[in-house]
Write a structure and sequence with these properties.
Elements: E1 2-3, E2 9-11, H1 29-42, H2 48-66, H3 107-136, E3 140-141, H4 142-162, H5 172-188, H6 192-197, H7 202-213, H8 217-235, H9 241-255, E4 268-270, E5 279-281
Antiparallel strand pairs: 1-2, 2-3, 4-5
Transmembrane segments: 44-63, 109-132, 144-162, 174-197, 218-234, 240-261
Biased composition (Basic and acidic residues): 8-21
Keywords: Membrane, Transmembrane, Transmembrane helix
Length: 282
């Protein structure tokens, strides 16, 4: 590991696990997950940031229940199964706090409640940035971190505004169209956080994510569904759900980016056509 003379960037020495690629394999949900599991098994340190973040998520769950400020339990925890997915790799907490709960609080309570939410957000953001930069073997650049946090903050704000509201669609064609649009957009943007970590600007990161997803969108949407189901299922575990979803699923989510995005300029995914397998080449 080396640091530039101005102290603004940190370059990682390429770990041995970068030798593990998807060369010669068709890109499917199974091969991507196997790739991620292999990387994590051979380099468990990749999961360390999310293990720490998972402890923070569990601590926050406990403090919300213990404190005087009101909180909510996500309705999805009561469902038979649920898909909990965020573009940014992070876990699923067992408790949450709405913006309305912070209104009209006395200053000490407001500072404590808001500070807890900010701490969790920062912890998850740093964990994602550290894991992604390590998995992709790229420089740890603070401008990339700032963009990563900017997108994470925007998504968190949108989530707070949207709350847990749902939309009921009675028309089957409209429902099918809605699912198709959601699948297309979410698959196209799946790799966006990883592109930001590699140092791309927000517009360039969006373009790279869309480009890298071509020919793989159904695979990526299946991966989103698999990860979302794992997040949602582990979050249901009493007491430890927040920790498990963060420490177990989020590292897999983050490392899977390396199956599609170039790391240190030495690997790419080449799409040779809609019917040809997309392959990673060195």
């Amino acid at each position: 590991m080396t640091t530039d003379s101005d102290g603004t960037t940190e370059r990682l020495d390429t770990p041995a696990s970068r030798d593990e690629t998807m060369a010669g394999e068709t890109v499917t949900i199974e091969t991507v997950l196997r790739f991620a599991f292999t990387r994590l098994r051979r380099n468990p340190a990749l999961a360390a940031p999310f293990v720490v973040a998972g402890l923070l998520v569990s601590l926050a769950d406990w403090l919300r229940r213990l404190g005087p400020v009101s909180f909510v339990t996500p309705e999805t925890l009561g469902d038979t199964f649920s898909i909990q997915y965020s573009m940014i790799p992070m876990g699923t907490a067992r408790t949450a706090r709405n913006v309305g709960a912070l209104v009209d609080l006395r200053v000490p309570y407001f500072v404590g409640a808001a500070g807890l939410e900010l701490l969790v957000w920062l912890g998850l953001g740093v964990a994602g940035w550290l894991t992604l930069s390590r998995a992709l073997s790229v420089e740890r650049r603070f401008d990339a971190l700032a963009r990563y946090f900017a997108v994470s903050g925007l998504l968190a704000a949108l989530s707070l505004v949207a709350g847990s509201s749902s939309v009921s669609v009675d028309s089957l064609p409209i429902m099918a169209l809605t699912v198709f649009i959601y699948a297309f957009v979410s698959a196209s943007l799946f790799l966006f956080p990883g592109s930001l970590v590699t140092g791309k600007s927000i517009p360039a990161g969006l373009l790279e994510s869309v480009r890298a997803s071509r020919g793989n969108r159904w695979t990526l949407f299946g991966l989103i569904a698999a990860l979302g189901l794992a997040y949602g299922t582990l979050a249901k575990v009493p007491v430890a759900g927040g920790f498990l979803s963060t420490a177990v699923v989020a590292p897999v989510h983050a490392v899977s980016f390396a199956a599609f995005l170039p790391g240190d300029g030495d690997a790419t995914v080449e799409n040779t056509g809609p019917s040809d397998p997309a392959r990673r080449e060195r």
